[in-house]
Design a protein that fits this description.
It comes from Pseudomonas cavernicola. This is Oxidoreductase. This protein is about 20% helix and about 30% strand. It contains 7 helices and 18 strands. The chain is globular, with a radius of gyration of 20 Å. The protein has about 325 residues and is of the alpha/beta class.
């Protein structure tokens, strides 16, 4: 759909927020907390940005974009946009939704990862459901939407941490995650290193994987295949068998063979290329699937994952 940038403003140092609305004033599609939209930019660039406004709103979408010094073009293109310009976006999708059976929700955000977490907090507060929010940033100037967390309904649920305030003011993950109990769910979003630290602390404390929810915006480290041997993929639709050499990804060989696979991050983060596996054992190298989902071996991300078996049969 086409939307217009009706407002662009600085949400924090190096972070711009964009308020999007339909040019004709018609309501936008409904979305739930944790959802994101695909934004189509110049030169075929597609990026995913979490919606961070109240999920009950239909007149606008609000996203926020950090200018990444190592940008591959997405954040630089977004920051160059001006109010009044038109954008093509996709319908909201949600791979990071709130669990319906949660009795208490622990929301952790690092940096720009506050965007989906903020929407979750507002949804839970509106429903009167038990939760707490913990938000970490390098310093106060880099904490996006800080005023929404220090004033109003979210203030009593919010705990803020700043790296420049000294060790005593930093988050203690071991203490925070020390009590995993049935019905308690953990949600984390932010830089890859932050998410990995949270996941490792949760695992050490004995959290059930079913109760841990995370969303990466970028890979914590470049995807590394545990075994770079050659293998083959078979397309279930026409029976074609395609060789995957050591130096090519599954996505690359599929595209070369004329098989269209939607991609965006190419880092195993966004989940756009998620593909069903009908036979064979994938070698998972992504940051998208949970450990339980990987153990099922019935889907994988061909942008970075490979195969432990000589042949993978794909639902393509």
């Amino acid at each position: 759909m086409q939307v217009q940038i009706v407002r662009k403003f600085e949400a924090a140092t190096d972070i711009f927020a964009f308020e999007l609305a339909r040019p004709d004033g018609i309501d936008l599609s409904a979305f739930s907390a944790g959802a994101h939209i695909d934004v189509h930019l110049q030169d075929g660039i597609v990026r995913q940005y979490s919606l961070c406004n109240d999920s009950s709103e239909r007149h606008r979408y609000l996203i926020a974009v950090l200018r990444d010094p190592n940008s591959r073009g997405g954040s630089i293109a977004m920051h160059a946009l001006k109010e009044g310009e038109l954008l093509e976006i996709g319908e909201p999708k949600n791979h990071f939704s709130l669990a319906s059976d949660a009795e208490h929700s622990l929301l952790l955000a690092g940096g720009i990862g506050v965007t989906p977490i903020l929407c979750m907090a507002e949804t839970l507060a509106a429903k009167g459901v038990s939760f707490e929010m913990h938000y970490c940033a390098r310093d106060a100037s880099r904490m996006a939407f800080r005023e929404r967390l220090t004033h109003g309904d979210l203030a009593r649920f919010s705990n803020l941490y700043f790296d420049d305030a000294g060790a005593a003011s930093r988050i203690d993950l071991a203490a925070l995650l020390a009590s995993p109990i049935p019905g308690k769910h953990l949600y984390v979003c932010g830089p890859g290193g932050f998410i990995m630290a949270v996941l490792e602390a949760a695992k050490a404390a004995g959290w059930d994987d079913h109760c841990i929810h995370r969303e990466f915006f970028a890979a914590a480290s470049p995807p590394q295949a545990s075994d770079s041997h050659t293998f083959q993929v078979k397309l279930s639709s026409d029976g074609r068998v395609i060789d995957v050499p050591r130096d090519k990804t599954v996505v690359e060989v599929l595209l070369a063979a004329g098989v269209e696979v939607p991609t965006s991050c190419r880092e195993g983060v966004c989940g756009m290329c998620l593909t069903r596996v009908l036979a064979g054992e994938p070698d998972h190298n992504d940051f998208y699937l949970s450990d339980d989902e990987k153990a099922l071996n019935d889907q994988f991300l061909p942008c970075c994952s490979r195969s432990k078996s000589p042949l993978l049969v794909l639902d393509l």
